[in-house]
Amino acid sequence: MSLVLGYANSVWNPHRQGLIKDLEKIQMRATNMLLTIKHLMYKERFLRLKLPTLKYRRSRSDMLEKILTGKYDTNVTFSLKTSRL
Q1: Sign of CA dihedral 40, 44, 47, 51
Q2: Neighbours of 79 (CB within 10 A)
Q3: Shortest CA distance to 1 belongs to which of 28, 21, 38?
Q4: pLDDT category of residue 82 using cuts at 50, 70 and 90
Q5: Model confidence over 26-36: pLDDT tens digits?
Q6: Phi then psi for 77, rounded to 5 degrees?
Q7: Are the beta carbons of 28 and 49 closer than 8 angstroms?
Q8: Three-class secondary structure of residue 36 per DSSP
Q9: pLDDT tens per residue, range 17-63
Q10: Which of 16, 33, 76, 83 could form a disulfide with 53 if both were Cys (CB 3.0 to 4.6 A apart)?
Q11: CB-based burial, 8-30: b 16+ in 10 Å, e otherwise
């Protein structure tokens, strides 16, 4: 599921709150389809599945793209800590 929501995000990386919320709604509906955790609230489903936030995945993807294309500044220290709801 997270791979689908992160597909081509180097080209299409939403920065507007409305688009980000739309993506969150997709993830919310997708987690609700899992019968074993359907009864849980979204935040609880999210934690149970150990999903990183969309913001975390976008930041990680941006950093990886910079590393792979040689645009990452090695003088800058940036730590990605797993972000939960």
Answers
A1: positive
A2: 4
A3: 28
A4: low
A5: 888 999 999 99
A6: -100, 125
A7: no
A8: coil
A9: 888 888 888 888 999 999 999 999 988 998 999 988 888 888 888 88
A10: 83
A11: ebeeeeeeeeeeeeebbeebeeb
